[in-house]
Specification:
CATH architecture of the largest domain: 2-Layer Sandwich
Strand content: 15-25%
Shape: elongated
Strand order of the largest sheet: 2-4-5-7-6
CATH superfamily of the largest domain: Histidine kinase-like ATPase, C-terminal domain
Number of strands: 12
Distance between the termini: 74 Å
Helix content: 40-55%
Structural class: alpha/beta
Order of helices and strands: HHHEHEEHEEHEEHEHEHEHEHEH
Number of helices: 12
CATH topology of the largest domain: Heat Shock Protein 90
Length: 449
C-alpha cells in the first residue's frame, strides 16, 4: 500500500511537475510488471524441469508482486485524482481572489483617472503639467496591469458547466479581441468578417467562446516574430432546427502555425475547450498559412413577445420627444453605491447634463424609476440590497407593459470575462468597465440622443 510518505511524494511531485511525476510512477509500475512477468516465466520453466517447489515459490512471488502492482495502481490513481481535484479547487480560489482584487482596485483607479482628467483641463503651470503627466503615465500603467491580470485570469479559468444566458455572438468575439488587445504588447493584427445577417443571438455559455479564442491567440502570439501576424476570423451561423444553430468559426493566420497539436489533442487546452462545448474542429496547414475551422452547437433563444398595453400614438410621441432632446435637456439616473465615484461622475457630467438624480442601490433605483421619468440610467452592478443586474431586469419587466425603453449603461468594476455578456443578457444596452475616460462615458451617452 502507499503510505503517508508516498502520498507526500505524490503531492510534491505534482507541485514540481505533474507530467514528470506521472511518468516516473508509470515507469515504477512497468518495472514491477516486468519483474512479475519474469517470475511467471521462470516458474513455468522450473515446472517444465520438474522443479515444482522452486517453481511454486517463484509463482507465488510473482502473484504477490502482481497484487501489489494492482493495489499501487489503484491507490496511485485515487490519490492522483484527489490531488488534481485539490489543484482545481485552488485554481477556482485563485480566480475568485483575482476577481475580488480586480473589482476593488478598479473603483479607486476610476477616481484617479477622472480626477486627473479634470485637473488637466484646468490652468496649470508647465512644471505642474509635467508632474500631472507623470502621474497619468503611472495611473495608465496600473490600469494596463489590472487589465492584463484580467486577461490572464480569463485564459486560465477552469472549463465548467455554467448557466446558459442569451448573448450576442458577434459582440462576444469583438469583446474577446478587445480584451486580448489590453495587453501591453500585442503582436497580432485582427480582422473579423461576418455573414450578412443580423441574427447573432445565441443561448449558451459565452465564457467558453472567450476562452477558446484567448487560448488560440496565446498560441499564435507565442509563434510571432518581430512582424505582426495577421489573424482573420470568419463567422457564420446556420440554423439547424427551431431550437439549435451551428456556429462556424474560421481562424486563419498568415503564417504556418500548429494551432492545435493533433498528435497530442488530449493535452491541448483549445481542444479540451472545444470538446467541452460539444464542438469539433479541423485544421489545414499551408506553406505560409493555417486555417482552423471550429463548429460549435448553440441553442436558439426563445424571445417572448412584449405586451403592448400603451397606445401606439403615446409610444410614438415618447420616442419622438427623446430623439429631439439635446444632451443638456436629458434627465439621468445615476445608480452608484461608492460615494467618491458617485461625486466624481457627477462632477464629470454636470457641465453637460442639467438634471441628474442619484440612487445608492438597485432597490432605490427601482423605486425612483417607478415615480419619475428618465431618459437614461447609469447603473453600477455590484451594490448592496439589490445589484444592478436584478434592478435592470426588473426595469425591463416594468417597461414590457408600456413598450417603452430607457437606455441603461452599466458602469461597473465587474470587468472579468463574461461580465459584459451578463449585463447585456438582462437588457442592459451598453457597458463601460472601470476605470474609464470621461470622454468615453460622454460618447456612450450621446449614442442614444
Amino acid at each position: 500500500m502507499i503510505n503517508e510518505t508516498d502520498k507526500s511524494e505524490i503531492k510534491n511531485g505534482l507541485d514540481k511537475s505533474s507530467e514528470e511525476f506521472i511518468k516516473n510512477k508509470r515507469k515504477h509500475i512497468e518495472t514491477f510488471s516486468i519483474i512479475a512477468l519474469f517470475c511467471l516465466v521462470a516458474a513455468l520453466l522450473l515446472y517444465s524441469f520438474n522443479q515444482k517447489i522452486f517453481g511454486g515459490l517463484i509463482l507465488i512471488a510473482g502473484l504477490i508482486i502482481g497484487v501489489i502492482i494492482a493495489r499501487k495502481s489503484s491507490v496511485l490513481n485515487k490519490n492522483l485524482q484527489e490531488s488534481l481535484s485539490g489543484i482545481s479547487s485552488l485554481n477556482e480560489k485563485k480566480d475568485e481572489v483575482i476577481k475580488n482584487f480586480s473589482h476593488k482596485i478598479r473603483g479607486p483607479l476610476t477616481s484617479l483617472v477622472l480626477i486627473v482628467d479634470m485637473i488637466m483641463d484646468s490652468d496649470l503651470k508647465k512644471e505642474q503639467k509635467e508632474l500631472i503627466e507623470s502621474f497619468i503615465t503611472t495611473t495608465n500603467n496600473m490600469v494596463t496591469t489590472v487589465n492584463e491580470l484580467t486577461m490572464q485570469s480569463a485564459g486560465n479559468m477552469s472549463y465548467e458547466h455554467r448557466k446558459s444566458i442569451i448573448f450576442n455572438l458577434l459582440s462576444t468575439i469583438q469583446n474577446t479581441i478587445e480584451l486580448y488587445s489590453l495587453k501591453d504588447k500585442v503582436n497580432l493584427d485582427f480582422s473579423l468578417n461576418k455573414e450578412e445577417f443580423n441574427d447573432f443571438e445565441c443561448l449558451g455559455d459565452p465564457i467558453l467562446l472567450n476562452q477558446i479564442f484567448l487560448s488560440l491567440f496565446n498560441t499564435i502570439e507565442t509563434s510571432a516574430s518581430e512582424a505582426a501576424i495577421k489573424v482573420t476570423i470568419n463567422l457564420s451561423k446556420a440554423k439547424l432546427t427551431e431550437t439549435e444553430s451551428l456556429i462556424s468559426l474560421t481562424i486563419q493566420t498568415d503564417k504556418s502555425i500548429v494551432l492545435i497539436d493533433t498528435l497530442a489533442v488530449e493535452q491541448s487546452r483549445t481542444s479540451q475547450l472545444i470538446s467541452s462545448g460539444k464542438g469539433t474542429f479541423s485544421q489545414e496547414l499551408g506553406a505560409n498559412s493555417t486555417v482552423l475551422t471550429i463548429l460549435l452547437p448553440y441553442s436558439n433563444p426563445v424571445i417572448e413577445p412584449k405586451q403592448n398595453s400603451a397606445s401606439s400614438k403615446i409610444i410614438e410621441l415618447i420616442q419622438k420627444d427623446k430623439a429631439h432632446k439635446e444632451l443638456k435637456e436629458i434627465k439621468i439616473l445615476l445608480v452608484e453605491d461608492n460615494l467618491i465615484n458617485k461625486n466624481i461622475t457627477l462632477l464629470t457630467l454636470k457641465p453637460l447634463v442639467s438634471s441628474i438624480d442619484t440612487a445608492s442601490n438597485g432597490k432605490e433605483a427601482l423605486d425612483m424609476f417607478g415615480v419619475s421619468s428618465y431618459d437614461l440610467i447609469l447603473m453600477d452592478i455590484q451594490m448592496p440590497v439589490m445589484n444592478g443586474l436584478i434592478a435592470a431586469e426588473k426595469i425591463r419587466a416594468l417597461e414590457s407593459t408600456t413598450n417603452t425603453h430607457v437606455p441603461i449603461i452599466a458602469i461597473t468594476a465587474n470587468a472579468m470575462i463574461g461580465d459584459k455578456e451578463k449585463c447585456l443578457s438582462v437588457g442592459i444596452d451598453d457597458y463601460i468597465s472601470k476605470p474609464f475616460q470621461p470622454s468615453l462615458l460622454v460618447e456612450k451617452i450621446k449614442k442614444y440622443f
